[in-house]
Design goal:
Layout: H1 6-16, H2 34-42, H3 48-53, H4 61-81
Length: 85
């Protein structure tokens, strides 16, 4: 049963619907429903694995590089805030 996480689902849907790179961090204590939230969000979404299997997903080097740059930027922001070492 999935109850009480509508606001989180709305935020994820909003991020998913943009044409920009988005990076969501989902964290919390154990047994609070993080995995269930992700599974519920992905329930009706086409998977990357499915797209790759059908030959419809072929990221360019530029897309991979942009993703890596965004990840590094985000990591630096977390370091500055003291959330990670």
């Amino acid at each position: 049963m999935f109850v009480g996480r509508e606001s989180e689902l709305i935020k994820l849907e909003k991020m998913y619907s943009t044409n920009e790179f988005q990076f969501a961090v989902i964290y919390g204590r154990r047994r609070v429903g993080k995995t269930t939230l992700i599974r519920e969000f992905l329930k009706n979404k086409e998977s990357l694995k499915q797209r790759k299997a059908e030959g419809r997903y072929k990221p360019t080097k530029a897309e991979w590089a942009a993703t890596i740059r965004e990840h590094r930027r985000y990591k630096e922001q977390l370091k500055k805030k003291g959330d990670i070492k």
